[in-house]
Amino acid sequence: MTLEVMIQMQNPNALIAMAQVSGSSNNPYSVFCEYIKYCMAINPTELMTITELINSISDQFGIHLPYNVTLQCMQILSKFGYVSIQNKCYHRDGDFDIRAFEKERDDYRSVENTLISGLIEYGNRYGHTWTTDEARKLLISVLDRRGIAFDIFLKNDVSEEITDVELLEAEDIEIIEDNDIENDNSRMEQINNQPIYEDLFFVGKFIQATLNTQGSMRDYLIKVCQGLMLCSAAYQLPSSDSGVVFDSITDTSFFFDTKLLLRFLGCAGQAAVEAAKELVDLIQTNGGKIYYYAQTLEEMNRAFEKAIRSLQKNQPPYDEDMRLFALKNKNSIDVLYSKKTTIEKELSSHKIFKRANETFDEKSRLQFGFDRLDLQQYMQTHLSWEPKTVENDALAIWETHMKRSGNYSEYCGTKDKLPVFVTTNTKLIGIVLSYKENRANTTNLHGWKSNRLPVISDVRLTCRLWNPSMNQERLPVLYLTANAVAAQRPTQKYINRIKDVVEQIQKSTPEYSSICLAAYFDDKVTDTILNATVGLEENFEIGKLASTIDEVIEFKAREQEKETAKYKQECDVLTKEREVARQKTIDGAVSSHIDHLGIKGFFLWLTLHWDTIFMCVFLIISALASFLDKLITGVLLFVVVLIIQSIEKFALSNWLKKKILNLVLNSTKETYKNKISKNLRGNELNFKDEIISQCIERTKLFKKCEDVLNK
Fold it and tell me: Which string of DSSP letters, residue by residue, matches 387-400?
């Protein structure tokens, strides 16, 4: 099969075509229709075949408009009277303002020229000299780093499918240990032949810097990315589809791959994490269900284990996403351990669950299946991934295929709830298509096409579910940022050079040895080293970098001091907030219980006023004695008075009063404590002793009793 790659950066309208598509975010067909109108308007004759139209659009705009999309556009144009069918050709009936269309295109071209010139100038600062065509090609390589729209820039016969794995820009998911690199001579030779900084590194930095500004260049980049996403969605429609709305995904199963789940869990750069969360939200909001296979959980655990081993050896994790996650968490091994142990729990809290592998009966295997081990062996032959990774991916592809029972009428969803395996790695899609092409006699694979597979990239699925009219700019900016960050991945040669320099400095300055090597790969340090070396490989040697690394180490030490001070300040604020909350809880509980002593409080009050009560009693008795004076003899009266005076003297003695008051007070306090303990609720129970203590201390009757007892 021969495929002509149409990433035609020599075509001055390729990127502009994508920017123009973004001008009608609700319906990209309207912009495609404008392309068709323009091509028909500049055609010498008024008649064109569908093939002539497709070729003309390719020549004028540098894009391949699929047959089904072209047909859909012609139906729209026919409905509005612009074209009619004559002898299997399309006849131009309407007029088109060529000058206005070309003016808009020229305006975009002016912005693009400024953008490309800025990129070339940026590369020149670091010794990279690019032509305009080279710069434009590098730009599109980053804009479409993860294959948002690889169909768009391919020109092939409508009956052919994409099979060349190398046509797809992919993320390398292989994670290689340092020891494996050192023991692999071919790998070491490959690393030695690498540049310190790849061209894409500088393109990524330029795009990221442009996105952080405001102006026409930033707007143009966003429009191009948005156009790529809109085209990707439109190109996924089947030829038989007469509408522009995708089928429902309600209750459809989406099986996520390892890297996509890790990104959702936060184990990547911020933009990639946000993009994964956006996809999860799009699926779940539209009624889809998200799962993962058992082997995917195994791969996630292995990814954490490898990252932890690297950090334990004072090395940055080899996997770029894990490296960024570790940096974000100060290269803390404890954080990675904690994250690893809570994977299933955290995913299930977001309604993402593990699914056990199914067992299919012999009839289903014969009717729909193919040789999984053959796919696995084919992948192993054509890819340099770890054998376990290949095995797990082959199993995921095979099982998803079996769940579909041979139905490839759509990518996913429909009333049949067709499941799909969602991956971040477009190379996996390419190898699946290549396998299908090389197994032409396997009838159960005939349903596989470039937009009908058991696997889909996360970006293409996002494009399919995304509603740009509701959230027009957010997702394109996220993907642009994620692509720009991914393009800045340090080469293994860069890592090795920095490692050598740092190790030499740490030997000469032992106090710096406690700083983890991974700490030297954050944005601030990377920028410092880039500025010091001006991107030139000859500047990566100890003599020229020593002072820079030394400054970086001092900076990291100062940064650590600031972090410590900030942490202490945050702790102080948190402690103060906790103290305020604690006191508020205590005060609330005390105010609701203070002075509420019940019946025992009444008896305590009587005891406190013992002498007053007895004085009243003896006054009454004295009055009775006066009355008895008339009824009894003098001797008997004398005896009665003597007894009364003795009792009075004893009863009103301070010793007896304190004794009784102390007994009643202690008894009342115990009852009061039990009453408070019984009525405390929720958080109040945490401060029971303090609440009881303050209630007793602030109860007025207790205080009066204590004052009497202390005299």
Answer: HHHHHHHHHHHHHH
